[in-house]
């Protein structure tokens, strides 16, 4: 079993609460708009990190992290990208591949809107953890925590922090 902390849109912001949740996970996944790499440096110092760059990220972040990160976590095919859309409204950059070869778990950020929903057409589960940074229109900072055990995704929790 692997315990995952999923976050996105830090926009250079990290605090002790985020780090506290990260320390309780087996892996931390970041769905882009990192901002200052001090964010990912602090996360990597605690736990293994899988991340992608987002549209606000500079050349340094783009050199360290890919635009798309597709990998296996136990028995789950995972695809993380920053701008991906959601079921029925996938971004054109990912749409064809989603329908041709869907992952079991598709993760993106960008919208600052927390969303977890199944795609009945492809069978994948879509997750967007919302935004955990302080920059943006969102009123509540959010992350997701869940577990992967073999091919099963379970124990999904929404973490809300005050701005």
**Structure summary, number of beta strands:** 12
Which parts are unreliable, with pLDDT below 50 for 5 consecutive residues or more? none
Principal-axes shape call: globular
**Terminal Cα span:** 32 Å
Mean pLDDT: 96
- Count of helix runs: 4
User: What's the quaternary structure here?
Assistant: single chain
Strand count, sense and barrel status of the largest sheet are:
5 strands, mixed
Secondary-structure class: alpha/beta
Residues in helix, %: 10-25%
Radius of gyration from the alpha-carbon trace, in angstroms: 14 Å
Helix and strand run: EHEHEHEEEEHEEEEE
> Strand order across the biggest sheet?
3-2-1-11-12
Strand content: 35-45%
What's the helix and strand layout?
Elements: E1 2-7, H1 16-23, E2 27-30, H2 38-46, E3 49-51, H3 59-64, E4 68-73, E5 76-81, E6 85-86, E7 89-90, H4 92-100, E8 105-107, E9 114-118, E10 125-129, E11 141-149, E12 152-161
Parallel strand pairs: 1-2, 2-3, 5-8, 8-10
Antiparallel strand pairs: 1-11, 4-5, 6-7, 9-10, 11-12
How would you characterize this protein structure?
The protein is α/β, with parallel strands linked by helices. Helix content is 20%, strand content 37%. It has four helices and twelve strands. The strands form three sheets. It has a five-stranded mixed β-sheet with strand order 3-2-1-11-12, covered by helices on one side. Strands 4-5-8-10-9 form a five-stranded mixed β-sheet, with no helix packed on it. Strands 6-7 form a two-stranded antiparallel ribbon. β1, α1 and β2 form a beta-alpha-beta unit.
């Amino acid at each position: 079993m692997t315990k995952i902390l999923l976050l996105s849109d830090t926009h250079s912001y990290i605090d002790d609460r985020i780090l506290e949740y990260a320390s309780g996970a087996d892996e931390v996944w970041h769905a882009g708009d990192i901002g200052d790499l001090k964010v990912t440096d602090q996360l990597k110092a605690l736990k293994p990190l899988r991340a992608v760059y987002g549209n606000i990220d500079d050349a340094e972040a783009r050199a360290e992290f890919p635009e798309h990160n597709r990998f296996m976590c136990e028995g789950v095919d995972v695809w993380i990208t920053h701008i991906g859309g959601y079921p029925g409204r996938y971004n054109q950059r990912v749409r064809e591949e989603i329908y041709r070869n869907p992952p079991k778990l598709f993760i993106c950020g960008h919208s600052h809107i927390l969303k977890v929903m199944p795609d009945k057409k492809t069978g994948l589960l879509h997750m967007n953890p919302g935004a955990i940074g302080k920059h943006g229109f969102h009123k509540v900072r959010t992350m997701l925590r869940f577990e992967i055990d073999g091919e099963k995704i379970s124990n999904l929790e929404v973490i809300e922090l005050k701005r």
